[in-house]
Write a structure and sequence with these properties.
elongated
Length: 790
């Protein structure tokens, strides 16, 4: 499918495009132009003659393009000139927006654009936005925000059209500049595509003059002014004309008129039609249409043509027999009309017609067209028919009978008198019981229509119907048709249906009940007074159980909400919700929507979830339960009290005991991976052998004596030392944790001593499971000591 070729820049655009992708010129009117310039309908009588295109306006397609190209050029220059400042601005703050397009109505309504600003600098700074390349008809306003370092906030930019003249539909590429308010300002630019949408208001046509009078001529001319001041896009108009008789030919100059946005123009119209007969005048209503694509705008011109009279033979004369026609209890009567052409000199071809001022009489001719020769007479029968008057009355109507040969008319009058005998309806009476009906919170009421025929001499069948001036009451009768014998009264139940007034208001509607026999009727009136109680939501009350919810060491709690509608008279559909000032409590209702009948109480449960407070503290949070019917709401307040226990002492005891246990068990497991020696195997004698110390514990000389310490050395081992340290670390629970920490550090030192000594002597081995257990126990004991200090 071929696209649209822009008339301004020549760029091809895809079908359905409204603005040119290159120059942003409005394209929608091009499609209307192609449809207007298509071949005219074969049955049209309009004559088109080539002529120059006219029209002036506040704007044109090129006006919109110039504005768009100027804005784009200004944006490009601004970006080149401010490149350094923009790069500096990126180091100071960052920008983000959900959209880069905005639509601003030409009628002046504001449009907003939200820009998210993040302060990435190290100072408190303020920010605002402006549009340096904005056209003169666009007003750009921006809020100001103050941001701490590392914070963000939304910046709202408002744009509106403020031109005194209508701004053409167009697209403008704007540069939205966000700058800082500090003493060392920097800025960043955001490209924004501004669209002024089409304000599609039909053109107005004003003929000048609207009434064309000519005598003895076939043609006339006038000018039609075209006003496009209400539309901001150019229109291409093709003109055509028509008349009901298809007797008038039209010529327009120019045949196609282009009117710019907000502009005006004019087209010259020449009309021609055959002249009327001599002495006659013809008035024709001409419809001039301006076609804009598939939309038509019409105006009406009156074309009056008159032809001078010529001398003719005397007209025929009419005479009706009888001239006074009386009928009783019937709708029709017949008169004979004599047509006299004895004074004429030529045949008279006559068309017979009839009329009456009330347009209540229907006249049927036996022969609606007759021919009367010169010097002769003839007659025609006419049947007069009208609706019967009310019973017991008569009506007189004057009917004008006429005969026309197309140039002259001959008339005569007949008085048609209709008499209707009195009917039983004349003595029938009707009353409404009660005549004033009062209801509360109801959409209707029931009354009785008493049909009274006690004064009648004969029975009668009547039909019942009702009405009110506002047409707001519906009537249902049971039965709708009733036979009332003479001398009796028949009650008929009438159901009145009417919407109740708004809550807290009342009104009174007058109504009428009518009985009819098809010819006459009898009426009775009454009043329906309706009142509505106050809005059900206003009478609703809420109860919260409990109002103070205590959560001991918990995050969740349950409460019951009771919705009391016992004071209301209307059912309610209630939606429940919750709110708290800190916005940290989550509410879950089961169910969240309730149907509460009048006079009833409904309950629902609400689950409240709140974060735990810090250990050893108690927090009180207030909240509100809201109930709404979609228009109003009511609320009840409550509070949540939360407390959290201090688990630090328990953790201290557990960690210290676990550490001591790990140190105790680790002494039984191998410490060295290759020799598989446990902590208890690393005795002092074993240390002398392993480390090849230069002395013997069994013959240790001191002060001239030889001392044997080999047995005592067997009791001293690294594992036993760890046992002692573990016991002392456990005793540290009685203090402030210092003893536990010191024993844990000594345990690590004792554990590391064998490995360091082996590494120094070149006999290094990897630690085994027992060494790791002891190390973990020391670390846990040290952590337990730290918890005591804190």
């Amino acid at each position: 499918m071929a696209g649209y070729i822009c008339d301004v820049c020549g760029t091809e655009n895809a079908p359905g495009t409204y603005f040119c992708v290159s120059c942003h010129s409005y394209l929608a009117w091009d499609e209307a132009s192609r449809s207007q310039l298509s071949a005219p309908d074969a049955g049209s009588r309009t004559e088109l003659r080539p002529g120059p295109q006219q029209g002036s306006g506040a704007g044109s397609p090129r006006t919109a393009v110039s504005a768009g190209q100027g804005a784009a050029t200004a944006a490009a220059n601004s970006q080149n000139q401010q490149a350094a400042s923009t790069e500096a601005g990126e180091d100071r703050f960052q920008l983000a927006t959900d959209q880069n397009t905005i639509t601003t109505p030409a009628t002046g309504e504001p449009a907003t654009l939200t820009v998210h600003v993040v302060n990435t600098s190290t100072i408190v700074d303020g920010y605002t936005a402006e549009a340096p390349n904005a056209p003169s008809w666009l007003k750009v306003e921006s809020t100001q925000v103050q941001l701490l370092p590392g914070t963000s906030e939304a910046l709202t930019v408002t744009m509106r059209v403020v031109s005194e003249t209508l701004v053409p539909a167009q697209q403008v590429q704007l540069v939205l500049r966000v700058r800082t308010l500090s003493t060392d300002p920097v800025h960043q630019d955001l490209p924004v595509l501004l669209t002024v949408p089409v304000l599609d208001v039909p053109v107005r046509l004003e003929p000048q003059p609207r009434l064309l009078r000519v005598r003895d001529k076939e043609s006339a001319e006038c000018t039609v002014a075209v006003d496009n001041s209400g539309c901001n896009r150019p229109v291409r108009l093709r003109f055509s004309g028509s008349d009901p008789e298809l007797a008038v030919q039209f010529r327009f100059e120019p045949p196609v008129l282009v009117v710019g946005p907000g502009g005006s123009g004019s087209v010259h119209i020449a009309v021609s039609a055959p002249k009327p007969d001599s002495g006659q005048e013809i008035s024709r209503a001409l419809t001039v249409s301006a076609i804009d694509g598939t939309r038509n705008v019409d105006t009406v011109i009156t074309f009056q043509q008159a032809t001078s009279a010529r001398v003719e033979s005397p007209p025929v004369t009419l005479e009706a027999e009888p001239s006074l026609l009386r009928v009783r209890d019937t709708t029709s009567g017949i008169v004979r009309v004599t047509v006299d052409n004895r004074g004429g000199t030529e045949w008279a071809q006559l068309q017979l017609r009839a009329s009456d001022p009330e347009r209540a009489v229907r006249v049927t001719w036996a022969a609606p067209q007759i021919a009367v020769g010169p010097g002769r007479t003839t007659y025609a029968d006419a049947r007069l028919e009208a609706k019967l008057p009310e019973a017991g009355s008569e009506v007189s109507r004057t009917v004008t009978l006429s005969a026309s040969d197309g140039r002259r008319n001959a008339t005569t009058t007949v008085t048609f008198v209709q008499i209707a005998s009195a009917s039983p309806m004349a003595t029938l009476a009707l009353r409404v019981e009660p005549s004033i009906v009062r209801v509360l919170d109801a959409d209707g009421a029931t009354v009785q229509a008493m049909v009274d025929n006690r004064k009648g001499q004969t029975g009668i069948r009547v039909y019942l119907e009702g009405g009110d001036p506002e047409r707001a009451i519906g009537f249902v009768f049971s039965p709708p048709v009733v036979d009332v014998p003479a001398g009796q009264v028949r009650p008929v139940v009438a159901q009145l249906n009417s919407w109740r007034p708004p809550p807290g208001q009342d009104w009174t509607r007058q109504f009428t009940i009518r009985v009819s026999d098809g010819r006459s009727s009898v009426e009775a009136s009454g009043s329906l007074a309706q009142a509505s109680s106050r809005a059900a939501i206003e009478l609703l009350s809420l109860r919260l159980d409990p109002t103070v919810l205590r959560l001991e060491h918990r995050r969740r709690g349950m409460a019951t909400v009771a919705i009391d509608n016992r004071n209301g008279a209307q059912p309610l559909r209630i939606s429940l919700g919750g709110d708290d000032p800190e916005n940290v409590i989550r509410f879950a209702f089961n169910p969240a929507v309730l149907e509460v009948p009048p006079g009833q109480v409904a309950t629902t449960t609400v689950r409240l979830t709140a974060p735990r407070p810090p250990g050893g503290q108690e927090v009180t949070r207030t909240f509100a339960i809201l109930a709404t019917d979609g228009r109003q709401e009511t609320r009840i307040d409550g509070s949540v009290i939360q407390s959290a226990a201090n688990r630090r002492p328990v953790a201290r005891v557990l960690l210290t005991l676990l550490g001591a246990l790990a140190m105790f068990v680790g002494a039984f497991y191998p410490w060295l991976a290759e020799s598989r020696l446990t902590g208890l195997d690393l005795e002092l004698n074993q240390a002398v052998k392993v480390f090849r110390l230069p002395f013997d514990l069994s013959a240790l000389r001191a002060f001239g004596f030889i001392i044997d310490l080999s047995r005592l050395a067997r009791l001293v081992s690294a594992g036993s030392i760890e046992w002692v340290l573990a016991v002392l670390m456990t005793f540290g629970l009685t203090g402030k944790g210092g003893l536990s920490r010191k024993m844990a550090l000594l345990g690590i030192l004792v554990l590391a001593t064998p490995f360091v000594a082996l590494a120094v002597t070149g006999q290094g081995e990897w630690p085994a499971l027992g060494a790791f257990l002891v190390l973990v126990g020391c670390i846990l004991g040290y952590i337990g000591g730290l918890l005591a200090r804190r």
